[in-house]
Amino acid sequence: MTTTEWITDIALVLVVFRQLREDRLDRKTFLIPLGIVAFVAYSYLDSVPTGGNDLVLIAALAAVGAVLGVAGGVYTRIRALDGHLLIKAGAVSAILWVLGMGARMGFQVWVEHGGGADDVAAFSIAHHITSDQAWVTAFVLMAVTEVVTRVGTIYVRSRVRAAAAAADVAPAASTASTAPVLDRTA
Question: What is the largest CA-CA distance in the chain?
């Protein structure tokens, strides 16, 4: 693994560790992880191989990423306090995130340094996966899908939570309270 790959993988893991401490839900919550995976996708997605069972591999790992992302977003706590939405990744969310990121890192280290290259080559031949680019694409799209679905799930849940808080505030309209909103700080 290159230094850039280590930094990128560690940065993605730190995104959730940052959320283990409750903090305001703001633009950074969405922009930092999306920016990291946009960089990764730009750097590593040269093409999408379509030969043999390449698309099956890519779709399977993207589906795993989607499941991990949605589950991670569901297990992230979002609550309203003093007109703001607060976010905190729970233990399950952090474990799922590290599991997804760690599996990709572990696979890459195993293939490059642990003697797994022959096993992956044999698996690829047996299952009609045509190139190493199929593996790269599959794991990159797994990461992108995990991040996008997690962020999307958190966004949808934050809008639902804000609407619920607004409904709770509406009967008490005699006060100057406002419903919690997504902080606009970046």
Answer: 71
What is the three-state SS of 2-69? CHHHHHHHHHHHHHHHHCCCCEECEHHHHHHHHHHHHHHHHHHCCCCCCCCCHHHHHHHHHHHHHHHH
CB atoms inside a 10 Å sphere around CB 78: 19
Q: What is the DSSP letter of 115?
A: S
- Torsion region of 82: left, alpha or beta (phi above 0 gives left; psi -120 to 50 gives alpha): left
Asked if 171 and 161 touch (Cβ cutoff 8 Å), the reply is: no
Exposed/middle/buried for 32, CB within 10 Å: 0-12, 13-18, 19+? middle
- 13-26 pLDDT, tens digit each: 777 677 788 889 99
β-pairing, 76-81 vs 23-24, is: unpaired
pTM recorded for the entire structure: 0.82
